[in-house]
TrEMBL record, chains A, B:
GO terms for molecular function: pseudouridine synthase activity; RNA binding. Residues 34-53, 449-462 have a biased composition (Polar residues). Pfam families: PseudoU_synth_1. This is Pseudouridine synthase I TruA alpha/beta domain-containing protein. The keyword tRNA processing applies.
Amino acid sequence: MSGDLIQRIKLLEDELEKLRSQLKESAGGDMGRNSCSPPSESSDFMMSDGNTRSSKKKSGKERPFDFSSHPRRHVALKLAYLGWAYQGFAVQENTDNTVEARLFEALLKTRLIQDRQSSNYHRCGRTDKGVSAFSQVITIDLRSSQFCGGLGVTLPENLDLGTKSKASASELPYVKMLNRVLPQDIRILGWAAAEQGFSARFDCQSRTYRYYFPRGSLDVELMADAAKRYEGTHDFRNLCKMDVGNGVLQFERTILSASVRPLQPQQVSSAERYDLFVFEIKGLAFLYHQVRCMMAVLLLIGQKLEAPEIIDQLLDVEKNPRKPQYSMAVDYPLVLYDCHFDGLTWQQEAEEVSHVLSSLQRHWTQSAVKAHVLLGMIRGLEERGGVSSNHCCLVEGSRQKNYRPLLERPCCESLESRINHFVKRGRLEREEGENGDEMIHRGKKSKHSYNASSPSGSSQIPKETVEQKQED
Amino acid sequence: MSGDLIQRIKLLEDELEKLRSQLKESAGGDMGRNSCSPPSESSDFMMSDGNTRSSKKKSGKERPFDFSSHPRRHVALKLAYLGWAYQGFAVQENTDNTVEARLFEALLKTRLIQDRQSSNYHRCGRTDKGVSAFSQVITIDLRSSQFCGGLGVTLPENLDLGTKSKASASELPYVKMLNRVLPQDIRILGWAAAEQGFSARFDCQSRTYRYYFPRGSLDVELMADAAKRYEGTHDFRNLCKMDVGNGVLQFERTILSASVRPLQPQQVSSAERYDLFVFEIKGLAFLYHQVRCMMAVLLLIGQKLEAPEIIDQLLDVEKNPRKPQYSMAVDYPLVLYDCHFDGLTWQQEAEEVSHVLSSLQRHWTQSAVKAHVLLGMIRGLEERGGVSSNHCCLVEGSRQKNYRPLLERPCCESLESRINHFVKRGRLEREEGENGDEMIHRGKKSKHSYNASSPSGSSQIPKETVEQKQED
């Protein structure tokens, strides 16, 4: 009897495993597998380079490997990933399903690092659940083959002079090694040697996000006019989710450019509901959910529920110190498209790039064809008199029957109130600063030590850094 | 111990159930649910009309319902469905996951029929696994409210005269009743009263399929030229999967029109890999997998691996009596777009049509936005010198390193050989016909009785009907 039950358990577990990978595949799709071929496809070049599936199993036991006898190299890695199947980029306590978790599995499996803690790992940004990236950058110390040294290379101690003077082979093929074991929807696009101290976190010059959306019944010209109002240096507290508990206390950020444009150039003035547009925004650093809040307001403007001037109002934090309640835009259209760094020379393995390109093209084919199957039916129904709803489905939450203007809505908690909340709990501490201004900084009970100036008054605003919790 | 095992089994089964619906949702998507909202979305109008989810559970016990006291009405129903999450339209022995299975659950649940066997059900065509339909048509006898009679109505026996003369209310709201309980990716678009004897199976005037595909590196002008060659009445045995076992013995079919055209009109001559095209084909009736085989050959022509004249060769069954081995095109881009019937007046409930339209628009938004996220990354890589592969991923099977021309390939079994195979097993029988020709018909061991003329000689070709196993 138990035997039968155990057998049944095994069957169910196998089926669950199968369904989980199917679900992952159909939700996230691939950047690296032939998604149009039957599963037994043997010419899939991502699988012929080695078994990509085994990366999903955690290694049973670690074979001892002497990292200390190898050179280490400080490098930057450029990653692309489709965020739809993940719970975000950063490792989380309550789930294993993050991009970082898969990345570290790959780094450990390939023995490029010994462990995360000693790997000197910094990341440029964090993307939230459902958000994708084309140019996520991390810096990290990896095992190197360069016994003769090189940019970013640290040689092992007690190095034999004979080994040191050997002619240098090329560096380890980091991109190929990692892509072989990473899941299909996470790809390394290139690597760059970096000076010691170079940090993906602190040395990023700018970040660019893209948010894709269809015209529907939106007034995209109004949205384009509105988007420009975001440019410049402003206090964006009304266009983000405040993260006071993590020490984010000042909300001034600089937006270098913000635009709304059609993906196909001829289409600005046409009436075509199904044309695609992109909101592209470039800034030094972003607050938590900032781009999705900015997009949500643009969508209200596009639906003519708000005027473009609402943006100026929301950026006027003296007049409007507390954020009106509104839902942010949904996650899946958002891409961290570029993270720009000076001083890095990216090494791209052309074959790897072509592999990723081909896989993306296969995945795109499936998506685009399905979209056109749907569009064919849509047009068929429109021809029969079907009436489109004007509901914009890119904003989270239910459709409002009667629209309530932003400035008439209930507001979220003020910054002061949030600060008080955390001061009470010892996570933040108030102190009198040099000029009599109030200084607020991380308290003894906080996870990190961090200093921030007072949100009011004339104390120095700290440089925008990536220390604060990043945008989606 | 068993108790723990049983508990574990229950947990696993619950999780499997959850994953299955997630998989269904992410693979098939919806025609009727707000796919951009979080699952707790309460304003989703498809769910506010009643609990759509309970349709998935089979009813515990049937409450006795007196069908014989209600009028019956012979009707046609027009269906649309996304085939990506199903194992095909027609009910199958080895799986419950078919469109028909869901349809009959809905018909039974709404008590519109008593059981399938007595419902006088005919279907216009069968679509295969992964294939969608915009205009599938079935005819069936449904419960009616029309005690005063009407087109297609059969009154119950022993009808009380008082009941008969009551003013007629409208007919039952068939479309709304069924859509309320059908899964989201199967929708009834309309119904039509039909004369007794009207059959979706025998009275279909023409069927139109569409196959969507991206230009890639295909020569679409060559494909357009080639497609025209399919028009007319031809023997298509080399462009289908023979289904001799089911009595399909003659392969002449009439193609009324066949074309390849861009979905965006300006795009025929541009070089844009990512433009979408459609192969549209209208015929009286189709053979099994015929459209996908025709598409596969067009794709070979588009890749310049074959000349357009290959079609004329394949249609010359005297010269080429046996089909060369080649893979058909993949399933997901194919749509049974229209089934045309004379003499039906379709009743469309405008509100229902608008609901389906809105849901399709939401689903399209998600697909199209994701396709553009991918396209943005593709363009980024192309800008960095990534090289596209020319592999056409719309054909099943592995990519051939060295292309082997169709006419040089090994061939499939000939028709004669297949007939002999089934004659040996008693499923077909040979008989001498009137003119001395050989007649072949279903044998005693066959499931259906069916007569077909000889494939050779001058005996009469039976009218193209939908009796034969339909195209995908």
